[in-house]
Each structure stands twice: as C-alpha cells, then as structure tokens.
Amino acid sequence: MSTGRVVQINVAPDGGVPKRPVHAALLTALGVAGDRQLDLKHHGGPDRAVCLFGQECIDALVAEGHPIVPGSAGENLTIAGLVWADLRDGDRLAVGEVAVLEISGPAPPCTTIAGSFTDGEFTRISAKLHPGWSRLYARVLTPGLVREGALVRRLPRESAALV
Length: 163
Known about the structure:
The protein has 163 residues and is mainly beta. The protein has 2 helices and 11 strands, in the order E-E-E-E-E-H-E-E-E-E-E-E-H. A 7-stranded mixed barrel has the order 1-6-5-9-8-7-11. Strands 4-3-10 form a 3-stranded antiparallel sheet, with no helix packed on it. The longest helix has 9 residues, at 55-63. It is globular, with a radius of gyration of 14 Å.
C-alpha cells in the first residue's frame, strides 16, 4: 500500500482550464462540486467524475521546460507521493477521511491544455505516447469532502472490494 497527499484541489465553475485552487471540495458520483466541464462528450459523468494528476509528473514536466502548474492541465486533484506510473484502471484510492475513488482510465489530452506545454505539445501527457505520464480519470465510489493536504492511500487490491 502506498500513500500520498492532496497538494491542490482545482475547479473551474465556468468550465475549461485552468482550474483554480480551492481549499476543500465535495467529491460526488457526478463530479467535483463547484467544477464544470464544457465538453460533456469527453469529460465528466460517473466514470470521469474526478481528474487526477501527479505532482511529481508536473515537477518533471517543469524541469523539461513546460509552463505547467497544478490545475493548468485540467486536473481536479493534484496528488503528491504516489508512484504515478504504477497506478492502473481499477485501483482504488482513499482520499481524506471518507472519499474512495476508483481509477477508470487515462484522461486523453486535448488542445484546451496546450498552453501548459512548450510549443503546445499537449500530447506529452498522452498515455498512448508516454505511458505513466497521463492524468487519470476516477469514479467516486464513496462521496466525501476532501481538503487540501488530505492523505491519499492506495488501497490493496484484495481489500478494495470491501470498501
């Protein structure tokens, strides 16, 4: 089992990017309270309720020269401390005191986040081109209020069904 923490919670009440930081937000089966998606064909809904991204990925991208910051790639939760490349579909994360998320797959990058990348190269975080670097979508199995700094625990696969 590995642990991390929520570095930043990001929402965009009017949709789009960048998403702006808030100190706390309610994670629900339909998404993050206070957040909105403009393109409901490709974003949002129960299987894409929350978008996650690793702080270590952001730090490495900055070191490569990209102007990315937490929230600018459209993620709702920026998380530090997990081995991002090890996360897989079906992995469950306990976030804060109550919320439980289940990773549902990679979040394909699109042109709306091009400003976060040198020369607009948003495909730098494509799961197909660069495995382990993608943002991840998650469904909310157990709703709950999450605060900045909250503990994130990767639940063992064998006990995940008990949550």
